[in-house]
Amino acid sequence: xxxxxxxxxxxxxxxxxxxxxxxxxxxxxxxxxxxxxxxxxxxxxxxxxxxxxxxxxxxxxxxxxxxxxxxxxxxxxxxxxxxxxxxxxxxxxxxxxxxxxxxxxxxxxxxxxxxxxxxxxxxxxxxxxxxxxxxxxxxxxxxxxxxxxxxxxxxxxxxxxxxxxxxxxxxxxxxxxxxxxxxxxxxxxxxxxxxxxxxxxxxxxxxxxxxxxxxxxxxxxxxxxxxxxxxxxxxxxxxxxxxxxxxxxxxxxxxxxxxxxxxxxxxxxxxxxxxxxxxxxxxxxxxxxxxxxxxxxxxxxxxxxxxxxxxxxxxxxxxxxxxxxxxxxxxxxxxxxxxxxxxxxxxxxxxxxxxxxxxxxxxxxxxxxxxxxxxxxxxxxxxxxx
Length: 386
What we know:
The structure is a single chain. By secondary structure, this protein is mainly beta. The protein folds into three domains: about 1-15 and about 250-385; about 20-135, Hypothetical Protein Tm1070, Chain: A, CATH 2.60.290.11; about 140-245, Jelly Rolls, CATH 2.60.120.380. It has helices at about 85-90, 200-205, and strands at about 1-5, 25-35, 40-45, 55-60, 70-75, 80-85, 95-105, 110-120, 125-130, 135, 140, 145-155, 155-175, 185-190, 195-200, 210-230, 240, 255-260, 265-275, 280-285, 300-305, 315, 320-330, 335-350, 350-360, 375-385. The radius of gyration is 26 Å and the shape is elongated. Residues about 1-20 have low confidence and may be disordered.
């Protein structure tokens, strides 16, 4: 512990870059793919870099779900494109399959695009849709939401929805909204890690018909990517419906710098890391001059380190407050004690977070006895590092 009369942390918030379609990454997710008597899929993987990369393509089967999939590995040279025609049959030996793809790389980043098409060609041609590989870091994560507009269910069209969960699975509420934003129906979906999901909207929601609907997807745990397909009942021609991404890229994952402010504007601070929508690490300092005695003198002018004893915790849990204890061992003229911290915050579009930090001290003695009891609430603000 350090005794301190002044604590000032300079906090710089860096804006994260926007998530764009066809974005390069070392971990890409494609929520829907199939090979049936109607559909065939070609997979294109481009290496935009100046050095070669190793690419692993994972097929994630939907029904039955494969809990232990094995990837196929490829080498892709600088600025080259790997073309896997009829990928499910030619690479994975599957004559019929429905599911999703995960694409990971070593040595660089790639982009991926899946073309799902039907028809024998010739004078009748073919038709189909393109599904982009979405970076796992841009997946919609715990505490976040996304929308897919243009949902329809009538005598002319219907809509299918596809999703793929992230490394921690996902719990999500899929709402149907009318054009005025009114809730028509909702369904909760829970998936395990890297599990593909599919539903036609007529089986998902208890609504006989609708036009120009919006799917509002709210993730309360884990992460996922989603896409839709609006299908013409006569021609069977599908049109891709993409999920929305915020300016923050949709994902809370990343490293954040934060500051904790008292009433006078003094600050302590630190950093935390979010991985797969879980707060994995907090490294912070805490000093609270607002805890004063009857004469207005600070009772506990001690700078504490905190966060080290926090177990990995879902981001969503912090909205209601997460309690944990730090025990401080005696050192030199400090006799030790315990502080119970309550960390409360909510995310802001994957760019930052805001909330409060509360603390209750116990077991302090001697000149540090003023550290016992409730500390005044402090303001907590953080921003994602670029």
